[in-house]
Amino acid sequence: MDKDNAYPEVTGLKSQVTVVIPCFNAGHRLKATLDRVCPLVDRVVLVDDGSTDGCTDSLEGYPVIKSVLPANRGKGYALIEGIHRALALPDTGAIALMDADGQHDPGDLPALFDVYRRHDADLVIGTRQLDRARTPWRSRFGNQVTAWVAGKLLRCPLSDTQCGYRILSPRFAGAFVTMVSGGRYETEMEMILLAVNGGYTLLSAPVTTIYEAGNRSSHFRKVRDSLRIYGTLWRALRNPDTAPRSRRRM
Ligand SMILES: Nc1nc2c(ncn2[C@@H]2O[C@H](COP(=O)(O)OP(=O)(O)OP(=O)(O)O)[C@@H](O)[C@H]2O)c(=O)[nH]1
Ligand SMILES: [Mg+2]
Predict the structure, then answer these.
(1) 19 domain residue, yes or no
(2) Distance in Å, CA 14 to ligand 2 centroid
């Protein structure tokens, strides 16, 4: 194992965690991600819904469970599909969600899992350290505003609500796939709302985020996808049944 893969041992990480990776036109970045994540865990579920760049075509030698859907349905839909697959595997004791495009460092997984395990959490969400030098200002601004709005309106106490690097307990993941059908990026906000409103133990932990020049891997459509996220928040605000009333630990 080279120095880059010499991550700290965290009991149960390899045998218990199933990693779910949604993937859409991630190009060469996918294999670079798999090279680093596959040695860490026994099971990786990859969900590709309609990539046209062939990124998931030749993965011989990678121990991944591949789910290929015929048409593009969005990141959230792919996550739901992947979580279903992960829950059906007999040894899944936790489900980690990670992006395919290299923005999440697999090296952060042991620390995230350690937080999950030590606190018996239901949902651990990465908090990205979005520094000025490497993060496009639109991404930084958008993330800060969304987290601020979610905090003010729904008393959701996360400083980053859109980070896709997460760990879910099987009981929370089971409830999530039962209650949410999945769409695009708003599905990740729906996950947080379910955790906040459903009395699940929600935690956050710092993660690194890597932005390549121009953020070329992004499929986030600034206006349309932001509106979908705000629509989700608006519906949660209007429905009194979704008012926050959870036990929360940050
Ligand atoms: N299966 C699937 N995966 C998707 C889809 N859209 C995005 N993804 C994956 O979700 C992950 C994050 O997608 P991005 O478009 O980079 O979104 P983001 O990282 O939240 O946004 P940026 O900060 O703009 O990069 C990547 O692994 C993508 O391949 C989709 O429609 N289907
Ligand atoms: Mg991205």
Answers:
(1) yes
(2) 25
